Amino acid sequence: MDGVRDFTGDEQAAVLAVLAGNDLLCCTNFETQYPAVLNAVRSGEIPQERLDQAVLRVLLWKMELGLL
Predict the structure, then answer these.
(1) Residue 38 vs residues 9, 42, 51, 62, 66: alpha-carbon distances, Å
(2) Domain boundaries, the chain
(3) What separation in angstroms does the CA of 42 have from each of 21, 24, 37, 57, 62?
């Protein structure tokens, strides 16, 4: 999904993905995007509840698949 880079940088792309409803990010630039999402949660740009919901869904998927 390199097209998003035409409109924003790596950091903001990850934040926008979470805000758009993505629960899992397949980052090409993990060292930049992971801290950007954490900083967005800390600043309130991404609500903590949004992150909590995403984590819960991912854990439930893993349980359903027998991975946990």
Answers:
(1) 16, 6, 10, 22, 28
(2) 2-64
(3) 18, 19, 9, 21, 26
pLDDT tens track for 9-36: 888 989 999 999 999 888 778 888 899 9
Based on the number of CB atoms within 10 Å of its own CB, is 27 exposed (0-12), middle (13-18) or buried (19 or more)?
Answer: middle
> In Å, how far are 34, 47, 49 from 61, measured between CA atoms?
21, 22, 18
Token pair for 23: 């629960």
How many whole angstroms separate alpha carbon 30 and alpha carbon 10?
9
Cα dihedral sign, 15-18-23-26? negative
The pTM of this model reads 0.82
